[in-house]
Specification:
This protein has twelve helices and ten strands. A six-stranded parallel β-sheet has the order 4-3-1-2-9-10, with helices on both faces. A four-stranded parallel β-sheet has the order 6-5-7-8, sandwiched between helices. It starts with 9 loop residues before the first strand and ends with a strand.
Length: 274
């Protein structure tokens, strides 16, 4: 007997482990949903690849999830969301495809009455202009200041989420977009799925007058809305989580333990070949 679509898992894809913050947000918001996570750890980082290569890799990874049987695809990777969404939606027209950039941009615009928005992201995402375009599409007069925060990724994966070193890095990155003789941003978008782990340090530097928009939690909200719109929400119960990676179950487990705050053993991670 074929399972009803509502009982199928949600497929979540990232180039590595950063998307686990999105998985965690979805699991917290939608505890009845079964989640299938794939990190393409053999081919990361995507940020150094061409847009065409990123799109090809993303379609391959999403195709593996679709073969497993999923009711929705969540692209929990800012680089893939920036470069691969048209290709993904064309390749899988029957399945809702949710990225992290559009929900984050919408939340930022909603939280910034004067349209003063800062974006913290990786160099690749800043260079793509994806957040700038998504924000401007919603509010053409918005003033958007972007900052690449490359070191944040390594800090998050090492579990360095607080302390003097983290706050020093946050000051180095954030202060230039706070102080230019112009009004301070009303909102900072955490435009990388690693950055929510550093939210406390970022908030301390930004100050109480600046709201943080977390692309993980906004993506989870978009997933909930899409499930409701498609009558795809899982029945009441407790969902399961299954991890897959394309390389190094031990490293995936170590970093997943940091991101999720609970032990993830290498034996919990299925290695797959794309």
């Amino acid at each position: 007997m074929t399972a009803s679509p509502a009982r199928l898992p949600i497929g979540i894809f990232d180039s590595g482990v950063g998307g686990l913050s999105v998985l965690d947000a979805i699991a917290d918001r939608l505890p009845a949903e079964n989640l299938l996570y794939l990190g393409d750890t053999a081919r990361l980082p995507y940020g150094t690849k061409s847009p065409e290569t990123v799109a090809r890799y993303a379609v391959q990874a999403a195709g593996h999830l679709v073969e497993r049987g999923v009711k929705m695809l969540v692209i929990a990777c800012n680089t893939a969301s920036a470069h691969a969404m048209p290709a993904l939606r064309a390749a899988f027209p029957a399945i809702p495809v949710i990225g992290v950039i559009e929900p984050g941009a919408a939340a930022a615009v909603a939280a910034a009455p004067r349209g003063l928005i800062g974006v913290l992201a990786t160099e690749s995402t800043v260079g793509s202009g994806a957040y700038l375009k998504a924000i401007k599409d919603l509010r053409p007069d918005a003033e958007v200041r972007q900052q690449a925060c490359t070191v944040f990724v390594a800090m998050a994966e090492e579990g360095w989420t607080e302390g003097e070193a983290v706050e020093a890095a946050a000051r180095r990155y954030i202060e230039p977009i706070l102080n230019h003789g112009r009004p301070r941003p009303e909102v900072l978008v955490l435009g990388c799925t690693h950055f929510p782990l550093l939210a406390q340090a970022i908030a301390a530097v930004a100050g109480p007058g600046v709201a943080l928009v977390d692309s993980a939690s906004t993506a989870a909200e978009a997933v909930e809305a899409a499930l409701a719109a498609g009558d795809l929400a899982a029945p009441v119960g407790r969902g399961t989580v299954h991890f897959m990676a394309t390389d190094s179950a031990s490293r995936f487990g170590r970093v997943a333990t940091i991101f999720l705050g609970r032990p993830v053993a290498p034996s919990d991670v299925e290695i797959v070949d794309l």
